[in-house]
Model the fold of this input.
Amino acid sequence: MSGIRVINVGLGTFLPALLDHDIPVLDVDFTVPGSGDERTLQLLKETLPYYGQVRAANERAVAALVMGQAQAVRVLPARAVLPDLEDRVILHAGPPLTWERACGPVRGAVMGAVMYEGWATTPEEAAGLVARGHVRLSPCHHHGAVGPMAGVISPSMPVWVVEDQDGRRASATLNEGLGKVLRFGAYSPEVLARLRWIQDVLGPAIDRGLVERKGIDVKSILSRALHMGDEGHNRNVAATSLLVRQLAPALAATSAGTVLGEVLAFLAGNDHFFLNLSMAAAKLAADAAAGVPWSTIVTCMSRNGTDFGLRISAMPDRWFTAPAPAVQGLYFPGYGPADANPDLGDSAITEVAGLGGTAMATAPAIAQFVGGTPGDGVRTTIEMREITSGENPSYSIPALDFSPVPCGFDTLLICRTGITPVINTGIAHREAGMGQVGAGLVRAPLAPFVNALDSFVQMIKKGEFQDVAES
Done:
């Protein structure tokens, strides 16, 4: 027995026994491609002859994803900014959704937005308008926008306007704070009063400040915040503080008295305020990477509480969906898994840009909010390297020798390894009007990635990428 040497290939259960007997082992980390699924294996096989085209296209897509600027330039009413946002249209998070399939939090947020706009005076009247088609629903992503959780944007709501060097724009609402807020499906009178204060006071004040400052570099704030314990999704304490620090002198120069005091007090009490700005910057980056022929890079992940949906660069307008998954996390006192709605929100766009779950190693304190340990965060970031095709040089990880965050989820790598992206998220109560009940982590389902790869292969077979292949 003393002469035995072992090569252990992907069999983790054998390894401890071998080591206990002091047997030399070369442990090879190996998983069966496609998790052994026959359909996935066949799709992966059919992409092999085109590896060169796909790799070159993915390099272009990742370069576009990470190299763009993100300058917050204005805060304006949504109707003045978002393309094709007509009156009596409410935007929502995730892929397309009908009222009949909408979950409780999305229904609550839509009803609240209808009342906020003055189109109805009661939740029942608001629900009736939507059910009869007098108020229409449309995904935020179809309008160059993103929204956290329910993701609801109505025409009067003030939104961030974020621009890159090529003139692209992306938008998101202003963050309301935690607890019983519209984005978690709450619509009580105090929720609507807060929205109107954001419209009448907070939004105009921040817009005046941005104009005074001639904009704010969002990516530079994120870069610094990741060195201060944020990850750009569920932890935004440092980023919010840095934003307020930059805005405060301009606010003081352009607002006075009660308005200034109210605005600064609200910002000081909302550690999540930067989240929506982070999402808009990530949306801007993802849109820059969309539309690259042959690219399998993910440019959108989003959930509406009913469906999880994604889009990839080569097919920028197509959604691939599966049922929204349940969230594993920590709950507020008095709540538990039975109260939780499946995952929802456009905020997974931050993971697409290399933030959030992808950058968990930068935020050890987030374990207190979403569960797990700081070590789990480091392991998650390392694992995400296995399914990304690049890195984001704008964001680095102190705990990993300041290496760049992994970036550019690759549908091919996800299908080959069976590893799916980890997403930081909040947890909404499943019933309309209840609000937030916790926060946690969730894995994207595998099926939409496999379906996206299937459609990608069909496009190859039809010769839809032929011109690129020959050039």
User: Anything to note?
Assistant: The radius of gyration is 23 Å. The mean pLDDT is 92.
